[in-house]
Amino acid sequence: MNINKIYCKKILSLICALCMTASLLQDHSVEAVFGSTYGDTSGVNITIDVTDTISKISPYIYGINAESDISSLTVNAIKQTDIRVSSYNWENNFSSSGTGTGSENDVGLISSYPPGRWGDPALYTEYLLTKAIRYNVPSRYVTLQMMGMAASDSEVNRWNEISFNKTDSYLSQPDITDDSVYIDEYVSYLVNRYGYAVDGGINGYFLDNEPENWTERFPSAAAERITADGLIDKSSQLSSAVKRIDPTALIYGPSISGIEAFTNLKNPEDWGNHKREYSWFIDYYLMKMNEASRLAGTRLLDVLDIHYHTEATNGLLDAVIDSDNAFSNNARMQAPRIFWDSTYTENSAIAISHNQHIPLIPTLEASINMYYPGTKLSFSEYNFGGGNHISGGIATADTLGIFAEFGVHMACLKPNTANIDYHKAAINIYTNYDGYGSNFGDTAVEADNGGDIMSSVYSAISGNDITEMKTVLINKNSNNVKMASIQITSDIDYETAEIYFFNGSSSEISRLNEDLTIEDNYVEFEMAPLSVYMLVFKSSSEVLDDTGNGGELIDEPIEEPDDKSDETIVIDLPVTETDNASETDKTSETEISVTSVSSEETTLPPEHVSAETLSSVGTTVNINEIPLPDEPYEASTAAITEPDESAAEETITEKIPSPDDNIKVPKVFKIAVCVLLGGVLIAMLYVVFASGKKNGR
Fold it and tell me: With 80 as the cut, is the pLDDT of residue 550 above it?
């Protein structure tokens, strides 16, 4: 009897252990218990100084890559970036899938067009333009081929040679039988079809895409890894060819990706020849492109462009960008600090081993100022993952605020998943938070949160108008509300603030039904967990000028670098609604009309090349007349609809993330629990059998 009781107790204990483990593995509170890498904070003191302007905000930081779904999204820039683009043959639209030695040549970049159009030159760029028109994207960027080989036809690993300069006349229909692909003829074709950049054509050109990866992606076309000098030589030659045809277009390069590439171009053996004199490859690239520009008599690099897809891992060594467990979600919201925060250490081997180059933006700016002053900065690919999770929305909103504060010129999100609803919300909170086109502003003002890493704050005004000030507030607390105590320094008093937001319950941007009341430019505002807010502060005060009379407040202009005396000024303009000039008019011009360009954007316009050096391709066409294909690359063909004014007035209550949201338990944690459970089971069995032996069984 006693033996049976002992067995019953032990079996019951084993069952209880199993039940507790199963409960733990299914518990939705795991994130709260195990996922808080960074502890929640109860409040944050925020100061905003409207009298202290930081930088002009470039509208081009709100961009996206062309292969992404941009329906219901308001962006100002769109860029070609497909992995195939390095192998693209603009003459016949073939490209390589880039998957290794077994890669296929096909028309994958333009396959959604009718087969009858597959032979049209530069159809991939036409797609870029038509998509930009459909979604009202004003600035468009083309990636040019620099690898040296382009896909020849549908045969595997058959290539045509790339040449930057054609010694013969440019043709309206390129010769597809000469085994050569001419990039200057490509640019000439685009200029003659769509116009110069300053007239609404292609705004800028990228010097290929991630050249440090050519060998892995296209081994039969790029057998040897690119060297530092080899890349600079190709870059300067291609840039010179482009500038000869359209000097108003911006040149972006080197478009490399990741800290290792920034440091040594992923070619440490070659970099060993240069590293004694230069901190990292970025320095060498800037200096050499500066030298090449002086020799060419024109600026050959307008924008230093890099790609940054977070390389952070969480505490379980999962790549944050591809993971959606609790650890990754917390780490993702902190990851944008790598751009600016010297106290942040990214949990990645590459970042730790190259810690001297972090934070990235100040280091990049220092390199620019030392080796090629006046060069702009671009992140034409960036991504922190979490496209369909609030943590991804928070990381993207935080990144855009950082780009605004630091005066980054251009940026394009490149998602790694199809569903990017939260990424879209993060961009729209800056570009179209009310559904009627209202945006963040064009001048960043000082905003500070006292170093609280569980929140972020960014503020801006439009022009010199301080009667309306916008502030983006981010709460990174996973479980707790956070009280934001906001003190504003301004020459006027703000009375109210409208509140727009999205959070963990929905990626839809909504408006709170009640505005904040501001007293003495101070207000306290309670932020829900995992939320992004746009606060629109408004004042009815009359702004006085220096004489005390009513009028627009004129602040001191933001200081611009004074090192532009010997650089060619190039212009990055949105497309206009007017038709482009005819080719006859265009070739007779020697200067560019800049009547639509304010004096703040440029000084003297650059000159066109002479009529003799321009292409004689066919007549320039209005891009608005290009027929739109049936949404290549996109599953949805839903039209953009006008906002419902009645819906905007509807009372909306704040959405708090539901505790019942699905939370995934980290795989490593599951394995650890299973191992522990196995150990408990073995121990229990041992005790049972040992007890049985003692009792003679």
Answer: no
